[in-house]
Amino acid sequence: MNVRIANALGVLACAGLMAYALYAQHGLGLEPCPLCILQRLAVIALGCIFLVAALHPAGMLGRRAYAVLLGLVALLGSGVAGRHVWLTTLPPERVPACGPGLDFMLESFPLSEALGMVLSGSGECAKVTWRLLGLGMPAWVLIALVSLGTFGVVWNWARPTSHPVSRDSRESA
Question: Fewer CB near the last or first residue (10 Å), C or N of the chain?
């Protein structure tokens, strides 16, 4: 498999994650908390980088730049998802109080302050209303971001774009 196909698979994986997130929101009625929204943004950003990498026939330097971007976005998203998982494991007496909605925070506070408030988490971020195999959605997003980030870095960092057949191997056949 060549690197552009691998990146296209990354796009499809990110699109699948977002499709399920939208189904969970609109089909199952699970409203995303502010940390969920940041995780969605990380998945969308990862998908966009995979898309550009899939469409662009980059050389080694370009592929390495994509690898760094994919790794960075996956790391940032994993940090948010990890924080979210941590909040869901807190005992009830240690869960922070529910805060204002993301729209209110973005309208009322500077971006850096609103981001700090979101990352500190709130009571609504600590609720686990959906599980699969014992893990809540933030844990699955963490697994997906780590997996996709690793996949993207490995495939874009060192993989050649194609495996040309040398003249020596053709003559010996």
Answer: C
Give CA–CA dist 151/162, Å, rounded.
Answer: 18
Token pair listed for 23 = 């189904």
Span 84-110, pLDDT tens digits: 888 888 776 766 555 556 665 666 666
CB atoms within 10 A of CB 2: 13
Q: Three-state DSSP class for 54?
A: helix
Express each pLDDT in 50-62 by its tens digit: 999 999 888 888 8
CA distances for 67 relative to 6, 15, 44, 60, angstroms: 12, 19, 16, 10
Considering only the C-alpha atoms of the chain, give the largest distance between any 2 of them, rounded to a whole number of Å. 74
Answer yes or no: is pLDDT of 127 > 90: no
Q: Are 6 and 159 in contact (CB under 8 A)?
A: yes
Residues forming beta bridges with residue 131, ordered by sequence position = 136
